[in-house]
Amino acid sequence: MGFLMGAFGKLQAGKYYRNLQYQLTLVTQRHTRVTKQIANMEKMFETQERNLKTRLQGQMQEYIMQQTGGGRLYGSLMNANPSAANLDGGFSPEDISIWNMANAKAQQLFSQSLNMWQNVFELQKEAQLEPLKDLESSLSTRKDSLESQIQLAKQDYEAKKEEEKDGAQNLKPNYTGS
Length: 178
Fold this sequence. Notes:
By secondary structure, the chain is mostly helical. It has helices spanning 2-67, 71-78, 82-87, 93-171.
C-alpha cells in the first residue's frame, strides 16, 4: 500500500511542482514587461522635461529681446558684457538698466514657469508611474512567494519519491525465510 501511496503522491507533487513553475514563468514575464514599461515611461518623461526646458529658455530669450527694444540692443548685449560695453561708450546706462531689468524679469518668469511645469510633471509621473511601480512590487512579491513554494513542492516531490521507493522495497519477496 505504501508503494501506491508514494506513487500517487509523487504524481500529485510533480503536477503541483510543474503548475508552480508555469505560474512563475508567467509572473516573471509580466514582471519583465512592467519593468521595461516603467523604464520607457521614465525615459519619456525625462525627454519631455528636457524639451520643455529648451523651449522655456527660447521663450525667455524672446522675452528679453522684446523688452530690450528688438534686435539691436539684445544682439549687442548678448555678445558683450553690458558693464564693459559702457566703458567703450557703446551703451548708455539706460540701455544697461533696461537689459538688467528685462533679464531679471525673464529669469524670474523662467524659474516660475519651470517650477510650475516640474510640478505638473511630478503629478503626471505619480499618476502614471505609481500604479506601474505598485504592480511591479506586487509581481516581485508574487514571484518570491512562488519561488519559495517551488522549493517546498520540490522537497515534497522528493519525499514522495522516497516513499514510493521504500514501498517498492517492501513489495519484494523475501526468499531468505526469515
